[in-house]
Amino acid sequence: MIVLFWEVAWLKLDALIEAILFCSSEPVPVSKLSQALEITPEPVEEALSNLDKLYADRGIFIQRVAGGLRIATRPEYGEIISQVFTRKIPVALSKGALETLAVVAYCQPVTRRDIQSIRGVNPDASLETLLEKGLIKEVGRKKTIGRPKLYGTTDEFLKKASLNSLSDLPQAKSLKEEAGSGNAAN
Asked: Which fold has domain 5-76?
């Protein structure tokens, strides 16, 4: 008879999933948890619900990001946490790289020429920077003359932007409204 380790009285599924998420440096999909634990996704989701309740008044929570799960600190504690820890300051993206990233995120798959026609400037340097940082990747070739490269965002982009999927991006209409209301105040 095979006894699965979470069936042992002193091991609880909630605690086991918590430990796995704590140890993982990458978001872990529910499907991977259920496969590794040899159970259906339903008990995993139930355990995650229990953890959500446990963490309701805590400084951490289970975050759904890039199609997986990870333990994260609550955003409202970010400023204080950053004061406690000396952090390596990441190199910020230039305005041009941010604009290029936005075009790729909202219009993907997109070619270099598409980006250039939207932004009005040559995007080569920005594309190179975004590729080096792993925020975008080549996702194929357009089926036209010359077969230009198509670019799309990566899971690294989703993680850095704290998005579970691209459908979580703000709607372009709401961005225009926010930009309009910001300009009215100036």
From this structure: Arc Repressor Mutant, subunit A (1.10.10)
pTM, two decimals, is 0.54
The predicted structure's pLDDT at residue 186: 37
Please tell me the distance from the alpha carbon of residue 24 to that of residue 84, in angstroms, as a whole number: 23
Q: Which of 132, 134, 176 is nearest to 158 (CA)?
A: 134
d(CA 96, CA 51): 41
Cα separation, 101 vs 70, in Å, equals: 24
Buried b / exposed e across 49-62, counting CB within 10 Å, b at 16+?
ebbeeeeeeeeebb
Query: Kind of pairing, strands 68-73 and 60-65?
Result: antiparallel
**Per-domain boundaries in the chain:** 5-76, 95-185
For the 95-185 domain, the top CATH level (class) is mainly alpha
The answer to whether the Cα torsion of 124, 130, 136, 137 is positive or negative is positive
- pLDDT digit string, tens, across residues 98-113: 999 999 999 999 999 9
